[in-house]
Design a protein that fits this description.
The complex is a heterodimer of chains A (about 200) and B (about 170). With about 200 residues, chain A is an alpha/beta fold. Chain A is built from nine helices and eight strands. The longest helix of chain A is centred in the last third of the chain and has 16 residues. The chains are: A alpha/beta (about 200), B alpha/beta (about 170). At the A-B interface, helix 3, helix 5 and helix 9 of A face strand 2, helix 3 and helix 5 of B.
Chain lengths: ~200, ~170
């Protein structure tokens, strides 16, 4: 399926989920689709840590739901992250693996063993039970409620098989935030939503 | 030379470190093992004040703890010196770029008292690497200094970047 079309669909189904994007294409696609500057944390080039970053938040805020995107380029750098996620088994966490079979953020450079990697099988081999793979919008929209609808309370791993960005899509705007700005925009929103204190400082 | 331990001393030190973390407000501890901190990891794992998360690699601890901070939960990353050396990109990318605090407890491998030749690289480069990335660190080598851990945690919040506490063999074994 088309990368941006997939993100448009997910954005249309989002309710109050907080979103974490990975470097490059997923941040571009989500920013292009949503222009969300408060309830999305665009994590830049962490090289495989976006879903664990989200998991830390999901541990802290069990009543809040999180969608975390990760490209398969990042995933291949640290597939063992799924051992940690399986161990945590956070019911408020959806790991969305965006599989374009390329290093999308670096001009679609080749991914090792790119077309052969079976991400769903990798996840199942770690003991993850709720594993779903979609390669078209029709199936994704048909099964969305069952897989990651707002009534689902179970750690879920979703593979989204998408086409790599075109040359034109590679030029989509990057989320235009410096790190500290993003931290405070997202964090202040979270403080209000969840009634928590993130940045409080006391002498 | 042996790397023998004094179980009673190690346990006492582990309890005191855990108490410091608990009093500082740490609720999530992500760890990877090093022999010197095996007793401390056991202590934290059995302490109901903490959610202990064994992780697959040290960088994963960086991501997890950064997220916990953004969710308003106090956290700490516990690892050996070699593991710390693998985290430089993750730490500078996430914690420095976004100004996210982090307390890291590491072992001061390669220093005087470490009998293992395979830690020569840490003896040579651990401190220079910490200096190179301008991360504040303190060395704790006696039980009387364990309360500094709480101060290091709070300093990371003030400084909005990581602080590191390096634990020596003399303290832990």
């Amino acid at each position: 399926m088309k990368y941006v079309d997939c993100f448009k669909y997910l954005a249309s189904r989002r309710t109050d989920e907080l979103v974490i994007t990975s470097a490059g294409n997923s941040g571009q696609a989500w920013w292009t689709t949503t222009r969300d500057s408060d309830k999305t944390f665009y994590l830049d080039a962490s090289m495989s840590l976006s879903t664990l970053f989200a998991s830390g938040m999901a541990c802290a805020l069990p009543k809040q739901k999180f969608w975390a995107f990760m490209g398969d380029g990042a995933f291949c750098m640290n597939p063992g992250m799924l051992m940690v996620e399986r161990q945590l088994k956070l019911p408020n966490m959806v790991h969305l693996l965006v599989s374009n079979r390329a290093y999308g953020a670096t001009s679609n450079a080749s991914l090792p063993n790119g077309m052969e990697n079976d991400y769903g099988a990798i996840a199942r081999s770690f003991g993850i039970e709720r594993v779903f793979v979609f390669d078209n919008l029709k199936d994704l929209s048909r099964d969305f409620d069952k897989v990651m609808g707002r009534n689902v309370d179970a750690y879920t791993f979703v593979v989204l098989e998408v086409e790599p960005f075109t040359d034109a899509e590679q030029r989509l705007e990057q989320p235009p935030f410096d790190g500290p700005e993003l931290k405070y925009r997202f964090g202040r929103t979270l403080e209000q939503m969840a009634g928590i204190d993130i940045f409080g400082y006391r002498i | 030379m042996s790397d023998s331990t004094n179980p009673s001393k190690s346990r006492d030190v582990a309890i005191r470190i855990a108490d410091q973390l608990g009093e500082a407000g740490v609720k999530l501890v992500a760890s990877l093992p090093d022999n010197w901190i095996s007793e401390l990891i056991r202590e934290i794992d059995g302490d109901a004040r903490f959610r202990h998360v064994p992780v697959n690699r040290e960088e994963s601890a960086i991501g997890l703890c950064a997220g916990a901070y953004m969710g308003g939960m106090g956290s700490a990353a516990l690892m050996g010196a070699s593991g710390f050396m693998t985290t430089i990109y993750a730490m500078t990318k996430i914690n420095y770029s976004y100004e996210i605090p982090l307390l890291m407890l590491i072992t001061l491998r390669g220093a005087l008292g470490d009998h293992h030749k395979h830690h020569v690289s840490n003896g040579l480069y651990l401190k220079p690497v910490m200096d190179a990335i301008s991360v504040p660190y303190l060395v704790i080598d006696k039980p009387a200094d364990i309360p500094e851990i709480g101060r290091a945690y709070h300093h990371s919040r003030t400084y909005s970047r990581p602080t590191i506490v390096a634990l020596t063999r003399d303290l832990l074994r």
